[in-house]
Task: structure prediction
Amino acid sequence: MYTIVIQISILLLALFTVISLTKRLTKSYIVKNSIEPHRRKLILNLFYLFYLITSFFLLLLILGIEFKQFGVFATSILAVLGVGFFAQWSMLSNLTASIILFFYHPMRIGNTIKILDKDYDLTGEVKDITGFYTLLFLPEDNKHITIPNIIILYKGIELITPK
Result:
């Protein structure tokens, strides 16, 4: 009984340590690269979700779930998630694209961009970047439009610098 309590305590301590370390590293990355705070929150939430899911599975192992039972449980969960993500593949691809845009794309909030594509001939100011879409303001039409992040990742984007 005491060993289970000690193992759970170590798991919680490790979880809080990893979360604290992630916060500090993300904050230093944001300051270094001038990233918007709301994008930091999005990335931190994704990391937290990963940490919590991993901790949940480790907790199941600590509580005595056998590897065979754990394997059946994990494959069942993954099968359900796989079917759900396949049905909503565009949502998953937009979420993945937002992470890639966060770390590797030079586009930032406030930049004026032009989407280089015959289907999407749009030029506008980036007002917000969320987990699934980017909000553009088109000054010539005085409209706000949303574009899925996957479009911004797949299509060529021209950053228009102010003169």
